[in-house]
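Researcher: Please generate the 3D structure of the following complex. Treat every line as part of one assembly.
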Amino acid sequence: MSPRPVAEPALGGLVVATMFRGDPRLLMQWCNFHLSSGADRLYVALDRPDSALIDALPEHPAVRWEVIDQATWDRFYTVGANVERRQVDAVRWLARLARAEGHDHLAFVDADELLDLAVPFADLSARHPDALAFTLPVREMWYAEGGRINEPFGATLALGQAPRDFDWKRSFGWRAQYFRNGMLGHDTGKTIYRLPLGSGQLSVHGPLTGSMRAGAVALTDGDARVLHFDSGTVATWSAKWVARITGNVVAGGLGPHRRVQLRLFQHVLGRPPEEQERFFQRFYSISPGTAAELEVDGMVEQIDLASSLEGPLPVPPTQVPRTVVRLPSATERTDVQFAMVCDQNFVKPTFATMISVLSQIEPGRTVRFVVLGDGLRATHIRHLRSLEYTAHDVEVRVHDITRDLDRDLGVAASGRSRATYGRAYLVDFLPEQRTVYLDGDVLATRDVTELFELDLGDACIAGVPDSASFRLVANPDGIPMAKRMRLAGIVGDDPLEYLNAGVLVLDLDHPDFRELWLLARAHVTMEGRALVQRDQDAINLAFVGRKHRLPATYNYMTQFYTSERCVDGDLVSAKYGSADASLIHFSGRVKPWLTRQDEFYNGLYRNLVSAAEERLGVSCGFYFSREVPCAARMWSVDRWAASLADTREPVMPDISPLGADVELVDVTDTDLYLRLTPEAYLHAVARRLRLVARNGDDALIDVPLDRLGPQQTHLGSRAGTGIRTVPVDLVSALAPHGGVARDVDLVLTSPDGVTSFERSLGRLDVLATEAAATPELLGELPVDGTVEGLDHGWLRAWYRAPGEEPLSLHIGGQLVAQRAEEPDEDGLRKISFRAAHMVVGLGYGAHGGDCVTIRVPGTNVPLPGAQVTVDQVRTERASVTVVRPLQRRPHLVDRLRRRLRRRGPSRSST
Amino acid sequence: VPRNAKDLDLVLHIGLPKTASTYLQNVLTARRYDLIQHGLLYPTTGTYEEARVRTREGAQAGHFQLTFRDGRQALLAELLDEVPDGVSTVLLSAEDLTHPRLRAEHHIEHFGIFRSIKVVAVLRRQDSWIESMYKQAVDVWSNFETRSLDDYALGKARLMDYRRRLSPWRNLVGPENFHVLSYDDLPGGAAILREVLEIAGVPRERLGEYPGVEAPRYDSVRAIDTLGLRILNGYRLQTRDIRNKVAREIYDCAPAGEIDLMSPELRAGIQERYEPVNQRIEAEWFSAPVPGLRFGADLSREPAPTPSGDELVDYLNKVVALCDSARELELGATADTGPASRPGAAGARRGAAARGAAARGAAARGAAAQDVAAAEMTGAVE
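Model: Done. Output below.
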C-alpha cells in the first residue's frame, strides 16, 4: 500500500471549524493537521471547557478559540436539547463569524475528523464557481493489527466506499452486522460551505433543504474526503460510550445501527479494563490478511499522518495508561435462567411454557425468564410479569426487539412469523450465565434444571438433532436431494450435528459463545431472507463443531413423532424410547391452544398447562384455563405499582436532527410566525431572548420574544401546533432596502449581549414587503411555479423548489394552512388547498377583497399566477353545485346478495 | 360558522370528572344571565336538558354534546347564534372532553375557530379520584358494575397519569393558556368556581358574588352505599325506574359510618406510581405549592367511624331482601306486560332474549355478588 499524495497547501482559502469536548491531545493534533495542510484559519468552539484547558490553550494567529460555557447553553436551549441541534447552530454561528472576518468558505468537521484534500481547495473552488456547498465523502479509519490504539489519530487504514454487492461478512465476520453501508460510524460525510450560508435546513453533515442543497456539489474521494477516526483511543471510546449508555449524553442521531452497537459495547464496558482493551483492539483492527484482500478491491488505503500532527501547536504528552471507564454490573446471577421470544400471538403459549417449567422447579431456587417481544403491548408484558407474584423467586425481564426486527428484517414475509428470528438478539439482552432457550410451544413434564449442570465440554450450545437429521440418518433416500445437500452444506458429514433450535442450552459462560452467536446473528441480519430454516440454519452454521447433542427427551417433537415419516429404520424405537420426555415440543401446525380437537397431544397440552396453572395460581387465558378469582384484591404494593406503570421499556431518545424546539414558520408584513414547544416558549420569555433578523451587519428586525402572542390554535393540524406570532413592521424595516432584502439571517440573541454566541433559526433567501414581492424575485431563486386557480373550492398550484419544506396558504395576509407535497419524477410538485373550506367554512378573510395566496419556503414572496380573492372563493363556492357521482357500493350489494342467497330460491321461481 | 367566532375568546373547563364539575355546571347554569353582565356566556347549546342519571338529584354533564366530533360544527354555529352583543368570552364545561375516545387535537380542530382558547382542568389526587370514579361507576344506571375497586382500578392506569393525559391540551393552547387547579387545595366547589370564573375574565372584585345560589351537588355516594349498589348491580335489573327506586332504598337503609373500599396495597401502589408524576406537575404546571396533590396526607374531610359487624350484617340482609323483591317485581312486570311495553329505550334495545337471560341468571349472580362483597367487607372491617 502506498500513501496517498497530499496536495500542498490543500486547505488554502478555507476556514476549518469544529466543536470540541474531550481529550486535549486530540484537539491539538486536529489543529496541527489542518494548519499543516494550509488552512487559512481554524475556529474551535470549545464546549464547556475546564479552566485547565482554557489556561493551556496556545496562542496562534490562525486559530480562534471560542468558549461556549454551560451558562450559554442554558441561556439558549431548554434542558435536554439535542446535541446535534446545538452543533448545527454552532456551524451557523461560526459561519457568521468567518464571514465577518472576510472569509469565503468554511468547512465544519467533528474533532475526530480530518479534512483530507488531494486537490487544492482553490482549484476545486475555481472548478465550481457557483457551488454553494461542497459535500465530501467519508473514509472510516481502522487500526492495523497491533496499531497505536492509544493515539487519537493512530488508525492508519482508510476504508473506502464498497461496491453495492460487496460481501462485508466475508471480510469482517460478525462485525459486519454493525455496519451501515460499510461504515461503523456515519456514512454521510461533511461539507464545505460558501459564505454567507444559503437558505435551508442543515444537519451536522451538510445541507438538507433549500438553496444550499440545490447548489451543493458532491466531491469524489479522489479529490477530497473526510477521514473519520470514530473509534478514537480505547480511553476515549470507553468514555464516549459509557456516557451514552448512562444517559449523560443524549445523542440525537443514534440510529438503529448505533443502538445495537451500544448494546454490544454495554456488555464489553462492564468487563475489566484489560478485556476492554483486547476487545477494542479486535473490534477496530483489520488483520493483515483482510487488509490485503481489501486492497485488491481498492477499498483500503494506508495513511500515516503522524508527521503532520505534532506541530506547530504543542501536543500534551500521552498519558499511559489512560483511565478506562468501566460500567458497574447491575445483574446478579440466578440459579437458573430461561429465554424465550414471542410476538402478540404467542404471549399466552409463551406464558404456558414459562409456568410449565417453573411449576416443576423446586421452590427456593432463583429463576429468571428473559423474554424478547415483537410488538408486545403493556398488557402482554403485565401478563408475562404476573409470574413474579407467585410463590417462586422469579424475575421476568421483557425486552422489546420490535425496532431491531424492523431494521433487520422489515415486514415479515406472508405466513412467516418474524419473531422466530428474534432468538438472534438474545445475546444483547441475556445476563451472562448459562441459559436454556425454549420455544413458546414447549412444555416441561419434569424439572429440567440438570441442563444447567451438564458438562458441555468445549461446546457452546447444546440441543437435540432436528427431525430432518433423524430422518436423514434413518433413510437418506427418503429426504429430497436439495434438503440433504443443504444440511450437508451446513453441518458436513454428520447430519445429527444439525440441531433443532426449539430447545437450546446456551453456555454464555463460555468465552467463545458471544462471538459465535454474533456470527449467527450476522447470518440472520445479512442473509435472513435466504435462510430456509431461518435462524436455526444460522445457529447451526455459526456453531459448527461447538455443539453438544442432547437426548431426544429434551425436545420431543410431536409433529415428527406422530407423522407417517417416523417409520424408517430405528425411528419407531426412538419414538417410543423417548416418549417419556422432559420437554415436549408441540411443533405441529395445529396448536393445541387454538383447537379443541381431541387428539392425544392436544389433551396432554391442556392437562399439563392446567396442572401448572393450578399449582402456581395463575391463568394463561386459554379457552380451557381456569379464572383466578379476586386477583387484584390479593396483590402486593409492588405489583400494583408495576401494573399501574407503563411497563414498556423506556424508549431511548430518538430525536430527529431537525427536531428543533424553536423554528421559523412564516413571515408577513406584520407578523413573524414561530413554532415553539411550551418549554421553549417559557424558556425564551424567562431569558428575555430577542429575535433578530440580520442582513449582513444590518439588523432589520430586533424584537423581544416576550411579545409573542398566544398559540394559533385555529391552525392546529392545518399547520402544526405551537405556532405563535410576534408583531413586526416589515415595511419600515425594509424601506431603506427598497422593500427587498436578500440572505437574511434569523437568530436568537441574549438581551444583555454577554455572549457572542447566537442561536440560529435559519436563513431566508429573499424577504420582501407585500408591495415589493414581485414574481421576478422568485426568478432569482431556484423556484418556479404558478397558481392555477380555483377548482371546485380547491386552490390549485404547482411548483418546483429544492427541499421538502411546506408551502403556506395566506388569506388576507394571515397564515391559514401549510402543506408539502412530494415531487414527481420531473421534480414538479402539485398542491391544492381547500380554499372554500377555509373561507366559507372557517370564516377566514374578513374582507371580500382580501387576496388568497400561496407562498414558497425560504422567502415570503407569493407564487405568481391567478389572482384569487376571498370574494371569488365565495362566488365560486356558491355557483358550484356539488354533484356526487352515483357510485356502486360493492359492500352493500354483496351484503344484499348474501342475504338473498341465505333465503334460498325466490318465491317467484318456485 | 358565523364570522364573529374570531372576536370571541373561549374558556374550556375540561374536568376532570369527580372534581365538583357538576356543581360548577349547576351554578353556571343558574347564574347564566349574571355572567353575561361580565361579558361571559355560559351557553345552553350543547347541554342536555334532562339528566341521564337519576338515582340522585343534581346530575348533569355540561356541554356534553359538544364533546363529539360529529355534528359539532353545526352545534358551534348554533352556539355562536346564541352569543349576545357585549359578550367577549364563551365558557364551556364538559368533563367528557378528556374522555379517551377523542384526542385533544380533535377537539381543538373545531374550537380553533375562536380568537383564543384557555383550558382549565381540575386535578385530584389519584387515590381519592379513582375511588370517586368507581363509586360513580357502581352508582350509574346500566353499568351493572360489580367489580371491586381494586379490579376496577386495574384498567385505569392511563387515566391516572395526569401529565401524560393532559399534556396534549397544554401543548395545543400553550402553557400560559393552560390552567390547572388542585381539588384538594381549594375549600370546596365554590372556591373552584371562583377560580374558573377569574380565569374566564370575571373581575376579581365581583367574584365574591359567586356562587350566590344553592346549587345541587352531585357528591359521590358513601362507600357503604357502593357496597349495597354492587349487590344490586349483580341482579342486573333491566327496568330503570325499579332500579332507581331500590337504589334509593339502599341509601336509606345504610348504617352510619364508612368502610374502606380500597385495599392498602392499591393505595400504596398508586402512591408509588404517581407521586413522581404529581411532583413534576406541581413543579411545572402550578405557580404555587399544592400540598393536596401530594401523597401522604389524609384527604377525608369528615372522618367517620366504621359500622359495627352487626350493623353491616343487618344492612346486607336488607339489601338482599330489597333486591330480591325488586327482581320479583320485575319478573312479574315482564309476565304481565311483555317486553314490548317496557319503559326505557336502553332496555328495549337489548331485546327480549337478553332480558330473559338476565332475569334467569340474576339470582345466581346476585348471590355470587353478595358472597364476594360480604367477604371483602369482612376483610375491610377486620
